[in-house]
Amino acid sequence: MDRSYKELLKLRRFPHTWCPGCGIGAVLKNVAMVMKELGWNYKNTVAVSGIGCSGRMSGYMNLDALHTPHGRPLTAAEAIKTVRSDLNVMVLSGDGDLASIGGNHLLHTSRRNPDITVFCNDNEIYGLTGGQAGPTTPQGTKTLTSPRGEHHSPLRLGRILTQQAPYFYARTTVYHLNHFKTCIREALLWKGFSFVDIISDCIELNGRRLGFKTAHQMFKWFDERFHIVEGERDQLQEDELGIAKAVVKEVPRPAEKEEVKPEIPMEGLKPFTLEELERFDGQEGRPIYMAYQGKVYDLSASPLFQGEKRMRCHLGGKDLTKDLDIAPHGEDLIFKFPLVGKME
Amino acid sequence: MKPRLNVLWNEIYCKRCLLCVEVCPVQVLTLERNEIEEKEGCIRCYQCERYCPDIAIEVMDEKGEK
Q1: Each residue of A169-208: pLDDT tens digit?
Q2: A21 vs B50: CB contact, 8 Å cut-off?
Q3: Does some domain include residue A251?
Q4: Distance CA A2, CA A5 (A)
């Protein structure tokens, strides 16, 4: 068996600090194994992690790593990817960090679709602080803060992250190891924002309260709750493990229309001088005329030009060529109105 | 500690979560006196090594090497 993945781990810091049977150790090990298979190492990869038990994962990896404030690993990862697009950036964090306090960053980072890979150690609880009910805690689960069962329905990350293409969302567990490694490999190779939701066990602070004695009993519970679905999927149901992904279909852009400026014959138009033009200012029932690029238009029908001033700043009976340059609209509004003459 | 037959066990890394004991299909691993002991009959399926979250178990190949 190939054990060269160990050079990606800081073995001098082992044993790690997680509880006996914790799934984060399995996440760390399998991510390191797949990285070794793909040839990713400290030269081309950066790991970013947030707060929580799973935030320690970046510290045990033999990579340049960043430990960010609570909920902010995605923003830091996106910044690294923006500045150094040659680096592979991956986020190793948990559900309390990514879905709860970092939920807004999760929404908007997935919307902007940077090329980063997120591994979310989803143990459905706030593990580090003692087992409080978190955003992904299933309804009815007994936790420290919900001794009669959690009231509210959980945040469905699978629905949130697959609402708009392109997306990559994989759900897997630490028990289904082959599927787990396949998901990690596909996520690391995906160009764009990829999210792996790893259903993991927190035996000490969640499992014991639910009645499990060992981590393996919790693994068997995952096996009962979830089943693997094969093939390409658009959506995953709540009890399915698999990969949901979609790419944006290339829509051919409509050919841009060439702007046709109306050709106006200059002959036969009534010549105006500026003094003559000033008479047509809308006062006492006279029409409103204005000059634009040497032509005179009748703006009497304009609903915004009633009562001598357009939008209370432009006067009728003037040459408004310069005013139109700074106006919020273009000249196409003026071409709608009848042409009555030309300037001398 | 008895000499190892097939399974190398790292006493320092191990946290005694007993995943290897429960995941073994032929039940050759047991916890005795706070140590993982191995009986005869390992079929070398590598399940204990794959599931160990602490990298504390390594299964030797047929030649007795790592």
Answers
A1: 999 999 999 999 999 999 999 999 999 999 999 998 888 8
A2: no
A3: no
A4: 8
